[in-house]
Structures
1.
Amino acid sequence: MWLTVLEKMRIPDYAQHQLLWTYFPQVSKSEGAERPFCYLDTGDKIMMLSVVEPSTECIKIEFQAGQTLMFNCMASLTARRYSKSGVVFKPQDYTAEHTKDWFIRKFKDVADINYVTFKKHAPHMLVDSTGRKKRIPLDRTEFFGTLTIVDPERFVEIVGRGIGGGCAFGFGAMILPQVMKWK
């Protein structure tokens, strides 16, 4: 996985995502192409994680099976359908148990979640290219805890592409402070 830290451009959410795609000229951006990165807007910087090496200065991060790390992640939960009952739970209806279970399932057979807690934040409203807010709110839940890596290759795929919905809008990037040290 690669970590890139960039100066933040003062542009709308959607334009930020389009700008970051330009760091991956080797990846076809055709319709349905899988995004090779996720990012986090820290205010004055953009921290980008990717499964493909970007065409800019970056640091390669490698993981080991059995490695235990702290994490922090702002994610947008997605709706969950229970097949037996046919009931659909939307993020705003999730109980604390649903929320933790949603996060743990993202890492099934990839990492053992040793401890996880979370904090709900007000929804994020998307900003379009004109600078106006769209009426599409994205759930914001911040997760904290520790995990132990079981499968390093699959862990990179999950963390490098982001967790949950809204990864194109700065959600889903997992901060792992023990291994994400910028020069």
2.
Amino acid sequence: MNDILTQNPNSPAVKAKKLMELQTLYKEIKPQIDELKAELLQVMQEQDVLTLKTGTYTLSRAKRITPQVVDFKTLRKSLEDAEIEVITEEVFAPQMDLVFKQAIEEGREFDGLESKVTEYVSVRIKEE
């Protein structure tokens, strides 16, 4: 019976084995991908290039903003003073991330809240 599970290409056992093989390959090449992206980001920053588009791919500089609560009590008071409704009991709950990101993008500052900005290169490959 076990042979039936491992011989059928659609069986969960075969799919799990293929997934593990792909994960192993990904772990091997991910450092190379990250290094190349870092080098491309540096060149794009130096040349002040935001997007590079060719017939086969597009490279774009992008930013990820990650809100970081550094002092819960101070942030809660700061939000109340700004008349922003805290939609959860805990101000640092994931539901508040959208509120924090929007405030950061608008340039608003709240005591107890900091942001981490990470710039990276996004790669889109044109499929034919």
3.
Amino acid sequence: MTKHDAAVRNFCAQHPAWKRHGLRRALNELFEDAPIDALGFIPDAFWIDGDNCTVHLFEADGSSRTDAVKLEKICGLWYALDALSWSCTLTTLHLVTGAISKIDDARLAAHWWDFTEPQT
């Protein structure tokens, strides 16, 4: 098992509501009348918090941070969710340093290139 897989499994073990697979399927079951098109990315883990109308995403980054292309696709999901009056957050775990960052809904609302620099 890679360090990345171990980190994701450990995170999910500590947060049992989080899932590793099936985000698009879960979203399309939730939003039957407004299906979500192909996401273009697979998060390491996710949690759909129906009580707060929020989709939480988790990414474990290795020697580099989540790249701008993936962030652009995550923001594409944010725009789709925003149109449905839902929010989206992104939590990252930098494997090298152990730093955890959370980009909340308000910051995802800005343009994706704002997040290509390391967050603290």
4.
Amino acid sequence: MVAGGLLLLLVLEAGIYNWRLALAMRHRDLAEQGRQLSWKRDELLVERAALLSPARLQQVGLGLGLGPVPL
């Protein structure tokens, strides 16, 4: 009976260890994905700022042959 109880405790301990290990790996993967998404967001914010720059818009417009509209 005691040996059966000890065996059950060992099996439960191994299961809990594996579960915690799986959770730790999932946390690591999600943290890495979060870092990648943060980097991508920063890149997109820089690109957005460049695209919304009035000087850049004027330069592109002049390159297309557009000019200021006469009043």
